[in-house]
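FAQ

Q: What does a record look like?
A: Structure on top, sequence underneath. For example:
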């Protein structure tokens, strides 16, 4: 099945999501620029300034898929799940919920995440599985690795660590095969969390050390600091 996107990549290119569809017009492009500025403000911890800029972006281009994604991302990160779900559903409608593209799959997995955080795991599972089906049919392995990792959140929450670990292991195998280091790092972190929940601190240490090495290469400082702290906590007198 083809959606008009080139899912191949040159050997030197790191795998990633394809770019969002082009802005429909100049107004939508301007709205994207405002939304990107808002996202940068949010990343600096300037939440209320970001909120104001997002409002301006929505006034200019409230139907643009990139604007809707950035609004979703902003609200889910600050725990405003009503708004996050609304933007996730609007974005899904904008990309076409009955289509089969990487954009549709990502929209379904975003919706699944917010539904999971809201405790609606039945609908979350359906959304994640729809994303998995689309990315499997497209042969889009970067998306598939992400989708499997997100689906693992549900059994992990229910204490079914075997199923969660199985899904994460599959996701990690795909990420390593295609060279998606960013996804591999997150899967190592998740596997470490599960190992610690099982009372296996040395296994957790092994996974987190792998994640730490990748984060150090890729450069996201906040992740490096987070997992350096986790490893340090394992050596504290109060650790398991």
């Amino acid at each position: 099945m083809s959606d008009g996107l080139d899912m191949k990549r040159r050997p030197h290119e790191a795998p990633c999501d394809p770019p969002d569809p082009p802005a429909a017009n100049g107004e939508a492009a301007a709205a994207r620029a405002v939304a990107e500025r808002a996202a940068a403000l949010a990343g600096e911890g300037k939440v209320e300034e970001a909120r104001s800029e997002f409002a301006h972006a929505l006034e200019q281009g409230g139907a643009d898929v990139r604007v809707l994604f950035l609004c979703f991302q902003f609200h889910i990160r600050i725990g405003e799940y009503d708004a996050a779900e609304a933007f996730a559903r609007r974005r899904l409608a904008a990309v076409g919920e009955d289509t089969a593209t990487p954009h549709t799959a990502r929209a379904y997995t975003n919706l699944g995440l917010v539904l999971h955080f809201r405790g609606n795991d039945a609908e979350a599972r359906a959304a994640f599985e729809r994303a998995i089906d689309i990315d499997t049919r497209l042969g889009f392995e970067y998306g598939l690795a992400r989708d499997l990792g997100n689906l693992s959140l549900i059994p992990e929450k229910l204490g079914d660590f075997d199923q969660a670990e199985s899904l994460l292991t599959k996701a990690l195998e795909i990420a390593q095969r295609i060279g998606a280091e960013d996804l591999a790092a997150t899967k190592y972190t998740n596997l470490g969390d599960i190992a610690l929940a099982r009372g296996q601190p040395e296994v957790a240490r092994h996974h987190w050390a792998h994640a730490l090495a990748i984060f150090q290469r890729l450069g996201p400082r906040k992740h490096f600091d987070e997992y350096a702290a986790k490893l340090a906590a394992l050596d504290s007198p109060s650790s398991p």
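Q: Is there anything notable about this one?
A: The radius of gyration is 19 Å.
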